[in-house]
Structures are given as C-alpha cells and as structure tokens.
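Can't paste images in this forum, so I'm doing it all in text. The chain is below; anyone willing to post the predicted structure tokens underneath?
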Amino acid sequence: MKNTTIACIALCLCAITSFAQKTTSTIESIKLAEERDIQLYVPEDYSAEKSYPLIVVLDADYLFDAVVGNTKFYAYKDEMPQSIVVGINQKNSRYEDCFYSDENGFPDKKGNAFFEFIGMELIPMIAKNYNLAPFKAIVGHDTSANFSNYYLFKNNLLFNAYINLSPNFAPTLEHKVPERLSSLDTMTFYYLATSENDESENQQRIGVFNNNMKSVSNSNIHYYFDKFENANHYGVASYGIPKALDKIFKMYKPISVDEYKKEVLAYEGPIVGYLTDKYNTIESLFGFKKQVSLNDMMAIYAGIKKKDDLESLEELSKIAKKEYPNTMLGFFFEAEYLEKMGEPKKAMRTYEKAFGMKEIDFLTKDLALERIDALKADFGW
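Text version of the structure:
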C-alpha cells in the first residue's frame, strides 16, 4: 500500500510538470492518512538543467498567490532566483494541522503527522520531479507561522529561510526560538513581521521575541523585523511578503548604493573579496553559478579606486576576462593595474588589446586611445 501511495503522488507531480505555471492538485498522504490539496507554481521556462529554490507556503488558500506574484516580480528584476513554490491548502484543517501541546509548545497529535508530511512526503516528491536548489524557505501566517518554527529544532535544518507573518506563538516559543537561533551553525534567514493594528497578544509576544533577538550575536543568523503602521492582522501578510523576499534575497541582488557605502567600503581585506564572497554564497545557496553582473563589477571597481587597492584591481581584471571575455573590461582593468604599478610599456600594449575589444559600460575605444596617448606623452614616445 505504501509503495502504491507514493507512486500515486509521484505520478500526480509528474503530471503537474507538463503544465508549468500554477496548478492545483490533490495528493494522498500516508502520514496524514488523507488526501490534501496543494498548489504548485513552476517557472514558465523551467529547465532541468537549472536548479530552483523551493518555497513552501502554509495557509496557501490565501497566501499562495501573494507569494507567487512576488517571486515572479523579483525574479523578473533579477533580484532573486526563479523559484518553485508549493502551497498547502489548510482552510478546513489549519488548527488540526498546526496542533501543539500546551505543556511544551511543540507539535502533538495531527501536528506531528503534518510536520512529517511536509518533510518526508511533500518535499521529497517535488525534489524527485524537479531540480531543486539547496535553498528552501517556508512561509506562514498566524498559527501556521508559529508552526514553521518547529523545523528550526531539527538536527539538520530542512529550511534555510523562515517567513513569520504575525505568528501566534505557542507557549514559550518566543524564548525558545531565539535560543535555538543563537546556537545554529548554518546560514539561516529569519523574517518576522507584525503591525500596530495587529492582535494585541501577538504584538506583545512578538515584541518579546524581537527583544530576545537583540542579544543573539550569531553571524550565521540574518534576522529581519518589521512593524507596519497601517496594516491589520491579515494585512501584515500583504505588506510582509515582499519585504521578506527583498531582505532574504539581498545577497542575490545587484550591489546597491547603500550596500556599497556600508558594506563594500567597510570590507576587511582586499575589496575584491567582497565580490567573490557574494557570488560564492549565491552558488552555495542556490546551486548554480550566477554571472557576475556588470553593476557589481563596476561597484567593486569604484571601491578599488577609492581605496587604491591595486591587488584587487589585478584580481578584478581576471574575473572580468572570465565573465565578459569579448569586451574591453578585463584588459582595461589589467592595463590600469600595470600603469599604476609603474609598467607603462606593458600598460600601453594592454590598452591596445582593450581597444580591439567590444565597448562596454563607460569603457569606449576613445577612452582607451586617451590612455594610450597619455602614456606616450608622459614618456615621449
């Protein structure tokens, strides 16, 4: 019976793959001993050659479309990777699904079964049919937001990111979760939101949670908190989802002016290390190598010039040749490095190589000629 049921789930998900975009289906769960309705979004241009983060949405009856819409928007702007989103409808079962013991605040009865359904049935079946990245996130609101926190207490974390929208915390969880976050040794993203018009008990306990997090000094934890002025208990979701995605996927986004000022220029060590750290993190989390954006190349170049970091300029030229091999970028950076190192002949020859390449950004053939002519004038050539 078990193998037959798993086969049914797999066939169902295989059928979904042929449609892409958003699909609603019913799967049979062994853990829950019942059928469950799920919603699945797969990017329209899904390719098995790429890997995709997975976002699990609880209370999908009303949260799913908001999450999908925002993931599509940010992916379109290249501010987060294209992602697969799976939602579990809970309209008639959310309190049973998220049931916990009043004694210890952890899942009990059907809550245990629902916990295992997500981790042992739903996600493995999606992984069998789609190429998933290591990065996984879970989204919940109110009771389901509280439930998402239980995955933090697994020895091997199932999720990298937790989006808690006005959680109705189980007993003492506002203390237990910060304690747990303080001890984690893996990069974890945690977003928490409430509002001035939220339910009073939620506000109070979320405030305690946020105060507890102020004493957490774990560099592995990326914690974000918002308290919205005008939203009510349900409006927190519409305000919080885009803010959460914007903050959680910050490392994927192009370097902003604020990031340049506060983080790039403050980076300890050769400044090019900020660029390599950023893209190594992207590759580690999302399972694919992202091309270094021209925006980021230029931000690091600006930082190098400001800090007169010649070591980084040489390394940046190597990265530029690899990422933009048919353009002037790499040879221009190399020529500028050689010029500053007091090797004018080598610099001039390298500027000449840059002149023969394709123009890019502010780097034009006229600029290369200006540099060449200036070197000739300086040395009377």
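The domain at 257-379 is CATH 1.25.40.10 (Serine Threonine Protein Phosphatase 5, Tetratricopeptide repeat). The first strand starts at residue 21 and ends at 29.
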